[in-house]
Design brief:
single chain, mainly alpha, Cytochrome Bc1 Complex, Chain D, domain 2, 12 helices, about 50% helix, binds heme C
Length: about 200
Amino acid sequence: MFGAAVIALLLCSQASADALVDGSYEAGKTKAIRCGACHGPDGNSVNPQWPSIAGQHAPYIVRQLEAFKNGERTNILMTSQAMTLTEQDINDVAVYFAAQPAAAKSVADPGLVEKGQALYRGGKKETGAAACLTCHGPTGRGNPAAAYPLLRGQHAPYIAATLRAYATDARKSDGATKIMRDIAKRLTEDDILAVAAYVQGLR
Ligand code: HEC
Ligand code: HEC
């Protein structure tokens, strides 16, 4: 396991992101125990349908938990979990999971890398889908301040499922801007599978 020095180092590297969320790492660690059943004790989930949240930006985690509470996002497993969290609980678990190291994965389907990479880096000219790297960054690290989520190393099946959810307006957590709903509607099922495979392998 990780020694105190390593944890301190990780907390330091997360300092700028965590400064945006007023939560307690220690309190979050205790409150996060029940989350581990699905997301893994350290936020690295083993079921590819359930998102990993280790190393995810704290402001984005906060936004998503609020979205599950207010119905902009619904999920049979997750909504009931979010409903029981107070604002302070949300901040605490967000700070805890943001400080966990995310496990790197390999590309889901090597046959899809080329197409996935082209979409990720260049977008889709024919339909006007913006390049993913503009917001999620060249290596999928996202942008904490803008609540652009980290994508690298995320399970491809979850990425694909959530892009379909945006495309059908089942997920509305992108708010009034509809950034992701607009982009997902411009992708075909083949595009979604390719970009999801590529994203899983980013590190
Ligand atoms: C019973 C299983 C289960 C438990 C327990 C659970 N979750 Fe989830 N969680 C899910 C699933 C499934 C999703 C994906 C929902 C979707 O596809 O929209 C999810 C999504 C999320 C997301 C959004 C991730 C993203 O990348 O957008 C966050 C954040 C989250 N959960 C945090 C938590 C926290 C914090 C707890 C503990 C308080 C918790 N979850 C407990 C199943 C669970
Ligand atoms: C203009 C900025 C922007 C661009 C371009 C963009 N995204 Fe996003 N993306 C966002 C924002 C903001 C969110 C968070 C929305 C929310 O809260 O639901 C997001 C969320 C996501 C999520 C959900 C992550 C999770 O953990 O649930 C996925 C997957 C995703 N984007 C994939 C893509 C892909 C693939 C592309 C390129 C085809 C892309 N994005 C292009 C801004 C962008």
